Amino acid sequence: MTYTFYLVCPIGFETLATAELKQKWAHRFPNENLPSVNQTKGGIEVDLPLRIGLELNLWLRIPNRILIRIKSQTCRDLPKLFSIIKKIPWRDWLVQDNIQFKISSSKSRLIHTNRIEQTATEAFEKFCEGQKLSKYHQKLNLDIQTIYLRWEEDLLTISLDTTGDHLHKRGWSTHRGFAGIRENMAFACL
User: Fold this and answer.
1) Contact 152, 111 (CB under 8 A)
2) Looking at residue 133, what is its pLDDT?
């Protein structure tokens, strides 16, 4: 089964990020072709098996963040949003209830981000009432998980952040100069 992964990269670096993905893919899987890559402004989309898509966080240096697309659907009002969020099988994706929503809207009827966040939070809490966490998972002290809600002309795309902190904050460098730049920018310059 494949999932759509969206690799967020600095605007203008989409071609470099695609080239890096192709190069790392050829090295990692020499006998397999990379599935088609769709470049958009600010990122690239690719359909991959879950394990490989999550491994991209370790392989790639140019993207800032890697999101997995959970659902895409037309959504024009808050009751519909409530219904969509409540019906997603969140326990397949999350092992915690500690979440936050990041919302963006462009050319949509839904533009009031505070009301959107409030509705999404209420729907998620309603889902969690019927789907309690195990005692083991309740004891875990995990970082906040980010869920992205993005509207483009009333088309809602729900994505889950697989990265956590931006990938340029990985801390791989051992020495930083006075005017250091982000690691992903430096890698792209190479």
Assistant:
1) no
2) 61
∠ Cα 132 148 39 (to 5°):
135
Secondary element (H or E) of residue 3: strand 2-8
In the numeric block, the tokens 């990041």 are attached to 102
Alpha carbon distances (Å) from 67 to 86, 141, 157: 20, 22, 11
3-state secondary structure of 121: helix
pTM of the model: 0.82
Q: What is the pLDDT of residue 107?
A: 86
Sheet containing 145-152: which strands, arranged edge to edge? 37-40, 43-49, 2-8, 65-74, 155-161, 145-152, 99-106
| Rounded-to-integer distance, Cα 21 and Cα 23, Å | 5
Between CA 57 and CA 159 the distance in angstroms is 16
